[in-house]
Amino acid sequence: MLRIPRTTPRTGTPRQKAPRRLRTAFLASAASVCLIAASAPAPPPLGIGDRLFPHLGNPGYDVTSYDLSFIYPGSNSKPLPAVTTIVARTTDWLEQVNLDYSHGTVRSVEVNGEPAEFRSSGEDLVVTPAEPLLPGVRMRITVHHDSNPVSTKDQDSGWVRTEDGLAMANQADAGHRVFPSNDHPSDKALFTIRVTAPNGYTAVANGLPLGVNRRDAATTWTYRTEHPMATELAQVSIGRSSVLHRSGPDGLPVRDVVPTKDREALEPWLKKTPDQIDWMQEKVGDYPFETYGLLIAEARTGFELETQTLSLFEKELFTRPEYPKWYVEAIMVHELAHQWFGDSVSPRTWSDLWLNEGHATWYEALYAEEKADKPMEARMRAAYRASDTWRATGGPPAAPKGAAPGEKLSIFRPNVYDGSALVLYALREEIGRRSFEQLERTWVSIHHDGVADTADFTRLASGIAARDLSGFFEAWLYGEKTPPMPGHPDWRSEKPAEKPAKPKR
């Protein structure tokens, strides 16, 4: 994800990611969700103990696939009737199954074809199968529900309401406000997505199309991913759109989704994608998925988002005259780089977010250096000056502070962007360009389609450098103060401004 500032960018000035009204969402009350007898006690939401989002995810099972079906009613202010089918394998004895879900009415639940009791508990949908589930068995849960695109006072929706329809923005804590799920990036799964909409609309989702079925006044589109995906990366676009096709490197299918009325105006930007993919492949290896493209939405979000195989962009990014050409292209590369860093290799915990955003920012800056003569060193020196302030306000890169109350997106602070790219710059200075480039290619290769964390990166870097780098990473990723920059002893970080003392009463 990347926040777009509303002022003209300047070389070397670090950007921040969205404090986010951005892409997220969601919840329904127990009364609207549950039909189970009131005498049954509701267990607390389990969660898997993620430091930043402790309520997300659920132990006891591993999801292998999602099948999502949505019916768009022709208005983006009305709930979408939906069916979510989850296939998973149990890892523990389960008398109840918790799903993350909190922003839509649930009508019925089945487990392995049998009706199941259900109720809400916080942001969980608690399902009680007719019989307890043994460890190591296949489990199929089908939930008939509504998916609400309208935000409430207490919850934003993971749907983004556009001028002509809907798109999705589920990072970091919003996928479960669109569909029931195990909403944590550590549990990736394959997705099949079906969308039915009135004729005149076009629906596109992650992955490749399986078919189009036109009946009377409505059309159903079906898409399927060929690689596992985190719930936060799911994407569905519904609008009066055109789908534009072109070939990428080695025949990779590239498809862009744009408002039909803007297709000619946006084409000069869209045609840059194949060369950008080729540039990234030269840096880190083959593109990791079955397709790629841009979803350009007519909506004000304040951010761009790396949804898998179909990155979400505001149309405004490409139409505002104050944005220099090099800047827009660098942002396109930021979201493209996420397909390797964050999508193919997903974070094991949200504290590992620096591995996503630091790398995307790194390749954004490297592209600007190579293609637009915007020196990486100047940008990193500016980041170094600000780094101590970023650490004081947001925490060090690999131990970011939690979100501010009521602002779940506030984990996307400067230190997970340029502050984390600064760590990568220091690492390249420490181990040398050749070892650094080998590390990058090896990282995305050995963790392809998987999850990884900071400890994995530390071990791999130490192995490639043939020396223990644990001390280096401990200082750069967890220290309160920014360590000296290797090779640049003259660089200085500005002292954080002290907060003014509160007046005495």
TrEMBL record:
The molecular function GO annotations come to: aminopeptidase activity
Q: Where is the Peptidase M1 membrane alanine aminopeptidase domain?
A: 272-476
Sequence segments annotated as region (Disordered): 482-505
In which residue ranges is the amino acid composition biased (Basic and acidic residues)? Answer: 489-505
Q: What is its EC number?
A: 3.4.11.2
Keywords carried by this UniProt record: Aminopeptidase, Hydrolase, Metal-binding, Metalloprotease, Protease, Signal, Zinc
> Which InterPro entries does this chain map to?
Aminopeptidase_N-like_N (IPR045357), Aminopeptidase_N-like_N_sf (IPR042097), Peptidase_M1 (IPR001930), Peptidase_M1_aminopeptidases (IPR050344), Peptidase_M1_dom (IPR014782), Peptidase_M4/M1_CTD_sf (IPR027268)
User: Which cofactor names does the annotation list?
Assistant: Zn(2+)
**Residue spans crossing the bilayer:** none
**Signal peptide location:** 1-42
Q: Pfam families from the xrefs?
A: Peptidase_M1, Peptidase_M1_N
* Catalysed reactions, semicolon-separated: Release of an N-terminal amino acid, Xaa-|-Yaa- from a peptide, amide or arylamide. Xaa is preferably Ala, but may be most amino acids including Pro (slow action). When a terminal hydrophobic residue is followed by a prolyl residue, the two may be released as an intact Xaa-Pro dipeptide
Zinc as UniProt keyword:
yes
Q: Spell out the SUPFAM superfamilies in the cross-references.
A: Leukotriene A4 hydrolase N-terminal domain (SSF63737), Metalloproteases ('zincins'), catalytic domain (SSF55486)
Q: Which residues form the Aminopeptidase N-like N-terminal domain?
A: 171-231
**Family membership:** Belongs to the peptidase M1 family.
Return the protein name: Aminopeptidase N
Source organism of the structure: Streptomyces umbrinus
